[in-house]
Predict the 3D structure of the following.
Amino acid sequence: MDAFYASVEQRDDPALRGRPVIVGGHPKRGVVLAASYEVRPFGVRSAMPMARAVLLAPQAVVVPPRFTAYAEASARVFEIFESVTPLVEGLSLDEAFLDVTASMALFGAPAAIAASLRRRIRDELGLPASAGIAPVKFVAKIASDLAKPDGQREVRDDEVRAFLAPLPVSRLWGVGPRTEETLNALGLRTLGDVAAREPAELEAKLGSAGPRLRELSLGIDDRPVVPDRQQKSLGAEDTFEEDLEGDDALRPHLHAQALRVGRRLRRAGLVGRVVVLKEKLADFTLVTRRRTLPEPTDDGQVLYREALALLAQLPRARVRLTGVSAQELAPRGSGQMGLFAAGPTREGKLNATLDAIVERFGAGAVTTADLKDRPERDDDEARRAVGAARFDGRER
């Protein structure tokens, strides 16, 4: 999807169409979640600090994120994908790999399938999308990036090496700024340069990553499309408008996050065995602590108690972000059963009742006393409605 969040905002508000739009949070402490193509010539990009983005493009319209709208649009996009093939591997809210090998007999050539999908997304959802078509994932991803905005590009088997050769080494997966500097220092500036070196030489210079980078440079990528990737963790986190200090200031935020995680676990039919507490300090240092539970749980209050115990292990400092997550997830009821089946617990009945109230009246309808004056983050629920991993990818 092209500038997905911004495209949804422009679709839903005609006054934003054709204008530079930034979807982002707090103007001083937040980051750019999406930048429309109209604002990109000013140097604004996703993940950029909002303060810098506003300086670069003071004329841009800044809109707050509406994750409910993005989740709904994403779900419909993935329904369109799955009408063509069951082999859909979602990378983020707005990006996926599709294997259409077995779909060609029914829907035609890959280019025709891609054009049809993009046309349906445009006609049914009013959103632009781009597509890359290639024999392997790595090449398809690059082709998609180069086709943006609102285009598609096909790279056939016999075109792969010529297509990749002139591209900069920064296009290789796993190559960040530091690795790029290392490659450039070795005289490797393009994928063609990497492909021309012997594997043993690259391994001597770059370790085990060297031969793998050469394979990618040659278009060798044997990874299959893996649908329905199992979710490994489920969490909630918040960046504060002002740095907080002291347990008393942090406890309500941890409580709210733990309750959100509990609701998501129950909604997904999952339980977690490990609780992880994350803090980002005022100097951007990231610290985490984890604890394994005696029994897996989907109870937010249990998660909160464990998070408080972990909080006591963290350094005392000013904090800009906290997060609570559950890991080592498993379907509820998948553990070993006892000899005598246990009935619903008191906590389980309470949670079921609270979930029913929230489902009918919204997340702010019922809460604990320490959270009564805090606005409930309904949008944050929607962010995970299509799977947490889909919200972690970089917006394109």
Q: What stands out?
A: The longest strand covers residues 319-331.
